[in-house]
Amino acid sequence: MTATFTALPACVPLDLRFDTDRLTADLRSLQVKQWRLNRPISSEGLMAEELHDWRVLSIRAPGGSPDRTDAGGPGMVGFADTPWLARTPYFAEILAGIPAALRAARLMALGPGARVHEHRDGNLGMPWGTTRLHVPLVTNPGAVTVFEGREYHWEAGRLWYGDFDRPHYVANRGEQTRIHLVIDCTVSLALLKLFPSAFTDGLVWSEVLLSRDPVPLNRAEMARYRCRFPVPAAFLDWSQDGCADDDLAASIDVVAGELVFSVGDQPQFSLVHVGAGEFRPQGWTDERTIRPADGTLRIRFLVRRGSSVREWTRPAQRNSR
Predict the structure, then answer these.
(1) How far apart, in whole angstroms, are the C-alpha atoms of residue 133 and residue 183?
(2) Is 242 a residue whose pLDDT tops 60?
(3) Regarding predicted confidence, which is higher, 36 or 154?
(4) Domain ranges of the chain
(5) Distance (Å, whole) CA 159 – CA 179
(6) Which of 121, 129, 245, 307 is buried most deeply by CB count within 10 Å?
(7) CATH code for residues 3-206
(8) What CA dihedral angle connects 289, 202, 133 and 152, to 10 degrees?
(9) Can you state the angle between helices 89-96 and 20-28, rounded to 10 degrees?
(10) Lowest model confidence (mean pLDDT) among 23-37, 132-146, 296-310
């Protein structure tokens, strides 16, 4: 957990409210059998199978796939709406009104008597350039989110922020299923304006990683970034546990009109240009970026966490194929 955030509230309501009748109407249209049992992924990895009723349905996912119920990560495709969102015009309206770039959006249902054991979500929070927001759709007084031993009950129809980098768990001690719309998005100044002033007044802004908008490149510009190089394995270690210290053979090439980062002959992720010849992995944030060789013989790899930056520089060769 980032020390500069521990003095802030673990969760706060944001300045957006929604019509609970319209929320319920959209939810009724999705009461189908395709809700999947959920297994949480924490900072320690995929957690054990749970014996209780915790289900998930994706309305926005990597590639728009309804089968992807995870929060997503670096890959070849970005986030897109799943077919389920077309059934829910009010949910679509809510997502369109979030003033930040959207990532995954999922409906998460916790059955009566269910409890998810305490964990921390990995690579999630303002120092990583992400926030996780909740809109309770159906709840009861026994449905709580617990941060570091303190219980919080979130009212339906309100947008809530939680710092899920802290130890937390959810429990439903009531007799009715608790259902939340869970929205992952990047961090923007417009989004932070929805937070209570008591929260933002205590925010250490230098530790917040704001998202940059993509900057287009034409084909001639893309071609300049085609190169081969060694990449530190630690740069590709998304857990950031610092164990990997080898270099791997890697390359950047143009594939189907996109710059693609490969290790060996295996594509890992496409690259999103964020300006000035700097790129982030598709599906990720500016927490991790690459500055490829463009007329030089060096390539730089950067990993950020708030104001902290780790950097590697490696030699590069222009790819002449």
Answers:
(1) 5
(2) no
(3) 154
(4) 3-206, 219-318
(5) 14
(6) 129
(7) 2.60.120.330
(8) 140
(9) 120
(10) 23-37
Taking alpha carbons only, the member of 53, 150, 58 closest to residue 95 is: 58
- How far, in whole angstroms, is CA 243 from its chain's centroid? 23
pTM (predicted TM-score): 0.92
Tokens matching residue 145: 């989110």
316 within 8 A of 305, measured Cβ to Cβ: no
Going by pLDDT thresholds of 50, 70 and 90, the confidence category of residue 48 is: very low
Residue 272 to residue 169: CA distance in whole angstroms:
34
Judge whether 218 and 224 are in contact, CB under 8 Å.
no
Q: Decide: 214 and 9 in contact? Cβ < 8 Å.
A: no
- Which position has the token pair 């510009």? 221
User: Can you read off the two tokens belonging to residue 100?
Assistant: 């930040």
Structure tokens at 57: 């349905």
Q: Angle 76-241-125 (CA atoms, 0-180°, nearest 5)?
A: 65
Burial class (CB in 10 A: 0-12, 13-18, 19+), 285: buried
